[in-house]
């Protein structure tokens, strides 16, 4: 049995600050997007599609990026499709593949919402940090993301 390496005081303070803040931060950002009729998930879809070639992505690729199951992506897109911000259509290259496509209305909604969202992010996060803290935040989350990515790679021994 491996002995547990308990968090030291500094680590515990950092962990508690993180878990006690992330929910409130997420809720604040969601509330601000709700003013525009969007959820954070909707906004992510609009952003990813706006950055894709032809403002379209294969549904399976979009699901992967958003870390959703195919049915989860379908549910996520339903409201955006109903409001004509996104359309689903077969791929021109392979009719078996479904594409999610950002419409002109969706692009206009994103263009209208982005300044509002950036102001929300600034107000809730960056207005409380100085330049060094912002650099540290970027470094911290880049390191955590790299660790999570490394953890998700199956080892050769498991093959």
Automatic annotation (TrEMBL):
The record ties this protein, via PROSITE patterns, to: HTH_MARR_2 (PS50995)
Location of the HTH marR-type domain: 1-146
Q: Which Gene3D superfamilies match?
A: Winged helix-like DNA-binding domain superfamily/Winged helix DNA-binding domain
What are the GO MF terms of this UniProt record?
DNA-binding transcription factor activity
Pfam families, per database record: MarR_2
Q: How is this protein named in the record?
A: Putative MarR family transcriptional regulator
Xref: InterPro entries: HTH_MarR-typ (IPR000835), MarR/SlyA-like (IPR039422), WH-like_DNA-bd_sf (IPR036388), WH_DNA-bd_sf (IPR036390)
Q: Which domain of life is it from?
A: Bacteria
Name the GO terms of the biological process aspect: response to stress
Q: Give the matching SUPFAM superfamilies.
A: Winged helix' DNA-binding domain
Q: Per the UniProt entry, what species is this protein from, by scientific name?
A: Ilumatobacter coccineus (strain NBRC 103263 / KCTC 29153 / YM16-304)
